[in-house]
Amino acid sequence: MEQPFAITLNVDSSLANHTGSWRVERPQYVSLMPPCNNACPAGENIQNWLYIAEDGSYEQAWRALIVENPFPAIMGRVCYHPCQTACNRAQLDEAVGINSVERFLGDLAIEKGWKIEVNTPSSGFRVLIIGAGPTGLSAAYHLRRFGHDVTLRDAATAAGGMMRYGIPKYRLPREVLDAEVARIAEMGVRFQLGQHVENLQDAINEDFDAIFLAVGAQIGKRAYIPAGEAARILDAVNVLRDVEDGQPPLLGRRVVVYGGGNTAIDVARTAKRLGAEEAIIVYRRTREKAPADDGEIQEAIEEGVLMKWLSTVKHAEVGQLKIEKMALDENGFPQPTGEFEELEADSLVLALGQEVDLSLINNVTDLEVRDGVVQVNSLMMTGRAGVFAGGDMVPAERTVTTGIGHGKKAARNIDAWLRKTVYEKAQNPKIVEYEDLNPWYYSDAPHAVRPRLEGARRASTFDEVVQGLDESTALYEARRCMSCGNCFECDNCFGVCPDNAVIKLGVGKGFEFNLDYCKGCGICVTECPSGSIVMIPEKS
Q1: How many domains does the chain have?
Q2: Is there a domain that residue 426 lies in?
Q3: Are the CB atoms for 347 and 321 separated by under 8 Å?
Q4: pTM higher than the cut 0.85
């Protein structure tokens, strides 16, 4: 049947009477905020690029994605996907594998050699970015698209920051990182690598119109642990950096990692790959309270990493550690028990968090530092006019995704400041809840599972553990999106309207209501799968 049942009837009498005069409410098409979009620290329009990918328009979907985030192949591997945690589909069966589709698009772009062209006329402004990690790279990308001349300066000899020196190759292959960084260089961003900025004032004195501070947190925090003179105690950040530089430290056969974050997990898994027979994580709280991603913890366990929860390191000697067991008090906080055990260990690696080296700003006035980070205003500008800061340097969650979002936000504010305007972010619409949807129209469709290397192979190689989806599974996963709060032209409203009041405007153009005939019955709202139609009071 080409036409809905309603309009196969004789409509003469309906068309002869403007029955819309009965109405006290009218339907209205809306574009609301999907929860995935709202949860993304990088500010991606996830629902939009998934919708484009659903019909196989992969390059178009990729280009829609990189409007906000230039690193889909990287983020499809290292982002802990808060978007999926927020996904409404999780209440129906399982969350959409957004991260998997993002990786597919990013990998396809690398394979096909898709480029980013800068067509914006030159602004004539010059911007210096200090730090070539995710925040600095993101800012460089967006500033270049605004037409600015961008110089990216970093002490390391290769760009990427903690993406290169803090995330092991088995999570982020370097050819993927290099490919997406190279795309930034091809846009015309000038890279000055191996150049340590020791004094920000010297950079200020150069001929730049604005400066963005994006130095990553690459100094490991220390903790006082009584130790014998020969006890081997190392820092997690330095261990991972040395491995990246091809100079892995001698950790021994039995390695203990002290900490519960993602860096601790990465070091323990790396130790196994370097030949350690035992790698043990010691953490003072429970698994549920560990800051590490639970998926990373599970993969570590599968690879033979041992976990000692509710434990602290009290003393270190050559070949041995003294561990105190903890217990939760009535408020759920760990407390010492006075019960100890001995743990054999050739080395102890401290993974207790990272700090930013702020020595470069010591001689600059008007920059306020509080709790180890630089204070900025709502425009991400420091107390010094024209000097902005973001990423690990400012109060924020320290993740790659957050850093990428900071880079974008900073770029927009820097661009506005240079042009003597103020960037004003548009107000977000209402977030769509599961109750706003009509799940009856969505059949159960469990998410596609990304293949993984077998556990036995993981511990002996730095090959990538988590594999990507092929085209068929990526397409399937994209089509699982329920398009929360946004019309995807399913024709339900057109088909169920008893008054022939819904007008199709053509593919990609959506619908509109003929209010001469709409009686405001609300059937279209009830039967809209995605919650993209609402009833509003009729104007008096």
Answers
A1: 4
A2: no
A3: no
A4: yes
